[in-house]
Amino acid sequence: MSSSSKLVLYSYWQSSCAWRVRFALNLKGLAYEYRSVNLRKGEQFSPEFKKLNPLCFVPVLVDGDIVVSDSFAILLYLNEKYPQNALLPSDPQLRALNLQASNIVSSSMQPLIMQSILKYIEDKFGPAERQLWVRHNTEKGFQALEKLLKDYAGTYATGEEVYMADVFLAPQTAVAEMRFNIDMSKFPTLNGIYKSCKDLPEFQASVPERQPDAEL
Amino acid sequence: MGIGGDSAEAVFLLAEFLLLSCSNWLKYEYKAVNLVKGEQFSPEFSKLNPLNFVPALVDGDIVVADSFAILMYLEEKYPQHPLLPQDLHKRAINYQAANIVSANIQPLQNLVVLKYIEEKCGSGERLTWVKHHIEKGFAALEKLLKDHAGKYATGDEVFLADLFLAPQIHAALKRFKMDMTEFPLLLRLNDAYNELPAFQDAMPEKQPDYVPS
Q1: Residues of chain A neighbouring B86 (CB-CB closer than 8 A)
Q2: Can you give the residue range of the structural domain that contains B188?
Q3: Could you tell me one molecular function GO term of this UniProt entry (chain A) (predicted)?
Q4: CATH number, domain containing residue B43
Q5: Domains assigned to chain A
Q6: For residue A125, which of A29, B5, B43, B148 sits 20 to 30 Å off, Cα-Cα?
Q7: Residue B34 CA to its chain's centroid (Å)
Q8: Chain B 14-53, residues with CB within 8 Å of chain A CB atoms
Q9: Alpha-carbon span A49 to A131, nearest angstrom
Q10: Residue B13: pLDDT above 70?
Q11: B96 touches chain A (CB under 8 A)
């Protein structure tokens, strides 16, 4: 058990949920110790990790005595404890929009297309059905996000500054494009947001390929 | 964000709670959106919420959809009756509990997904699926809340976690007829929620558009 007061992030290079937290930590200028949990090898089921998070998911953030699981909860916690470079705007409508966009990704998209669910779909119904399922659930979410953000997006999701919506959107878009071959040109607003995020050094440092446990 | 209305219950629960505990300064108009009749796809409602789920809150010019976003909006607008504790750690516990329900359980028990499973492999598989995901989430909640629960999930006052837990436990018991003996804390919380007038009033059966099945 580390006695350091540094933040510790349990992460896996390919986890889009961990990616969100890496991006947010970078935006806030927060240093952290990266601890890899190899999902491919099943390390999330180890007794030690299960104690940290009984759901056996990454990411988990440890801040001294405080353990926070779930990327959404982690981001809200970080935003409250380390308010610099706020993840939420002060305007109530834009704030709500950020929370809603984040939740569309976090509750309506990612849980339906995470690896364990996709494995279930593929085992039961075959790879073609899996691909249909991924496409359907991803595009449904992106269609909603496109409609939601169309009138608000600027350089980023809700204007000219990076906020929580961007932190959720960018990794999800990356995964959709690279892992699931979703054609993002159908979602011009989201595509624009993703392009803007890709220009940020904070985002570049958070990408899977640059993580200590990346297997390239 | 389930079509089944569990997340709508969370919002009603809060509204009722504020209504009853603050001498009616938080009134709201209930506008029914008949999901069975597909009213969530009307152009008017689609504009409010492009995902076509309830709930959606309209407050003057401001439209907020998504139960979590609504609750946080109300929390910030009506700070006199906080739905989050002051302590950062306890707040984080509330956020985690809410997300266990809204990201780990609800998306996998909503009608669209269940219909898909049932059409593909029958109602037996549907029930297995739903119980698996609820049990996994409930086991995590038992552990998460063990050292923090008081009368309610994170202490002796109703907070955000309770607003998500109450409808979810209700659904597990009533909709999915689950055996919850392995989840004694959640069962105890359920008893506490059942004593709250706000919770009684927020139940589906009490809503203006309730249709007995």
Answers
A1: none
A2: 88-196
A3: maleylacetoacetate isomerase activity
A4: 3.40.30.10
A5: 7-86 (3.40.30.10), 92-202 (1.20.1050.10)
A6: B5
A7: 18
A8: 50-51
A9: 31
A10: no
A11: yes
Question: Is B212 within the bounds of a domain?
Answer: no
A181 touches chain B (CB under 8 A): no
Interface contact flag, B96 A68, Cβ < 8 Å:
yes
| Tally of domains in chain B | 2
In a domain, B174, yes or no: yes
Q: Give the tokens for residue A101.
A: 């966009």
Q: Are B55 and B93 within one domain?
A: no
Pick the residue of A17, A107, A145 with the most B CBs within 10 A to test the interface with B by mutation.
A107
User: Taking residues B68-89, what's their average pLDDT?
Assistant: 89
One domain, residues B78 and B109: no
pLDDT in tens, chain A (216 residues): 444 578 999 999 999 999 999 999 999 999 999 999 999 999 999 999 999 999 999 999 999 999 999 999 999 999 999 999 999 999 999 999 999 999 999 998 999 998 889 999 999 889 999 999 999 999 999 999 999 999 999 999 999 999 999 999 999 999 999 999 999 999 999 999 999 999 999 999 999 999 999 998
Closest residue to A125, CB basis, from B63, B113, B120 = B120
CB B27 within 8 A of CB B19: yes
Side chain identity, residue B191? D
CA B7/CA B102 separation, integer angstroms: 8
**Mean pLDDT in residue range B59-63:** 84
- Which structure tokens are listed for A131? 């691909």
Q: Would B213 be classed as within a structural domain?
A: no
Interchain proximity A77–B99, CB inside 8 Å: no
Stated pTM of the model: 0.91
Sign of CA dihedral A17, A75, A171, A62: negative
Considering only residues 48 to 77 of chain A, which have any Cβ-Cβ distance to chain B shorter than 8 Å?
53-55, 65-66, 68-70, 72-73, 76-77
Distance from C-alpha of A1 to C-alpha of A195, rounded to nearest angstrom: 40
Confirm whether B1 is domain-assigned. Answer: no
Other Cβ atoms less than 10 A from the Cβ of A176: the count is 25
Chain B environment of A157 (Cβ under 8 Å): none
Taking the Cβ of residue A30 and every Cβ of chain B, the question of whether any pair is shorter than 8 Å is answered with: no
Nearest residue of A to residue B66 by CA position? Answer: A100
